[in-house]
Amino acid sequence: MALNQDIENWNPEDTQFWESQGKRIAYRNLWISIPNLLMGFAVWLMWGMITVQMMNLGFGFTELQMFTVTAIAGFTGATLRIPASFFIRIAGGRNTIFFSTALLMIPAFGAYFALQNPDTPLWVFQLLAFLSGIGGGNFACSMSNIATFFPRHQQGLALGLNAGLGNFGVTTMQIVIPMVMTAAVFGALSGTPLPLESSSGTILGRIEAGTDTWIQNAGLVWGLVLIPLVIAAWFGMNNLRTVTPNPGHPLAAFGKIGGLYLAALLTSGIGLWLFLPQPVGLDLLNVWVALLLVIIGTLLVMRAMPAGIGAGMTTQFAIFKDKHTWSMTWLYIVTFGSFIGFSAALPLSIEVIFGNMWVPTDDGGLERVSNPDGPSALTYAWIGPLVGALIRPVGGWVSDKVGGALVTQVISAVMVVASVAVGYVMSLAYGTEAPHEYFWIFLVLFIVIFAASGIGNGSTFRTIGVLFDQQQKGPVLGWTSAIAAYGAFIAPRVMGEQIQAGTPELAMYGFAVFYAVGLVINHWFYLRRNAYAKNP
């Protein structure tokens, strides 16, 4: 049988089948899935690091505009996860992973060309960030796919490996982007450098102003790496006919995926038009109401798609009648929503809060100026996401042993306390003339939050894998990850607005309240004496 052949019969719960052939096939698909998913995260969230360097190079945009570019990528990526949750059922795993990963070349190479000119208009970067959301959507279909390959008793570890090592794309991006910008590492393809106007850095340390920087390499590096990965996906992965009875010809499958993505991009575009400042005042529309309308609109458009797409998802929409879908959605926002949101918002938050300071003016007032002792976001922002990604499989493994809900309860309590503490530290740092004095306690507290969210990701994967059957758990994983991914939009937006208002701590206090509600939900559904499902 060819490596990429469709598989007609698949029953991982049959021990003999699993040991004789299932395990080998499942792990081959997993090991190819992980680096493809890693690239999805890297391209999706690369704007968090790129915008920091754009500010250091004097691209001429405001801090809030840079937060907005990052938020746009987060918003689109979350919305695209909604249709991506259903790709495997209608298009097949191999077809989906190949095509959705190949689409990432558009924003990657687009960034490469746009970043070579500091006069490139803001809308170009907004459009590229918009298309980078495809990488965010890839998580939902990747998790849905891997969930169908493994038996229930290995769901926590398998999904934890796929998500944890896939999410390592965040840290990979945060380490690689600063490094490849320091030299013409791609020879003539690297183009012409730009001199830094403000100091920057890498994991190796500080880089002073005036140093030549090849910021365009931040896009080129992913475009080049994507080429062998999509080849591996095409020749090494499989469609499971037990999950996708009729994927059709690969071109037809690509058409289904493209059609659903276009529908979600349309609703994303409308939503962002409502969120972003408009001359008619639509920016005053409540962001939460508009967000809900985008989610509902995307589902309705998907349902109205032509037969073969919309009809193929009808049975999967049954997940919305299950109360556990909604409880796990909240809990997954607590864990993954926090991980992805803070990954997107942390670099600029470090740059703005600790890279600037208040100094007295001649008229007795205060003004915000560059802090010569401020830490570089490019040097430190990668640490928290690294911890969160690496510890995620541990969360899945522990949950397989003691139960997912118990682990979720413990980490949620930790996140409540840590969020309140980091909010208080942020308020102290923002209001002082020496904010760098508070940086290390700030960083340690955020690492705690990332670690807790990573463990919680593994525990929620375990719980979903136990609660739902083979047909439902894929769409549920996709749906919950889609809604949680809005954290990559909410966190940069909320933190950017609160920092601009001079009250950064309010953002963290608000997140702590959300986590506390998650504690109550988790206890009521899964830990109390008469819980609906006891510690799944």
Low-confidence parts, pLDDT < 50 over ≥5 residues? 278-285
Order of strands across the widest beta sheet?
1-4
The span between the termini is 37 Å
Number of helices: 19
Query: What's the shape?
Result: globular
Mean pLDDT: 87
Radius of gyration: 22 Å
> Strand-residue fraction?
under 5%
- Please summarize the sheet with the most strands: 2 strands, antiparallel
Helical fraction: 55-70%
Instruction: Report the count of strand segments.
Output: 6
**SSE pattern:** HHHHHHHHEEEEHHHHEEHHHHHHH
Structural class: mainly alpha
Keywords:
69% helix, 536 residues, two-stranded antiparallel sheet, mainly alpha
Can you describe this structure in just a few lines?
The protein has 19 helices and six strands. It is mainly α and 536 residues long. The chain is globular.
Commentary on this structure:
- It contains 19 helices and 6 strands.
- With 536 residues, it is mainly alpha-helical.
- The strands form 3 sheets. Strands 1-4 form a two-stranded antiparallel ribbon. It has a two-stranded antiparallel sheet with strand order 2-3.
- The longest helix is centred in the middle third of the chain and has 32 residues.
- The two termini are 37 Å apart.
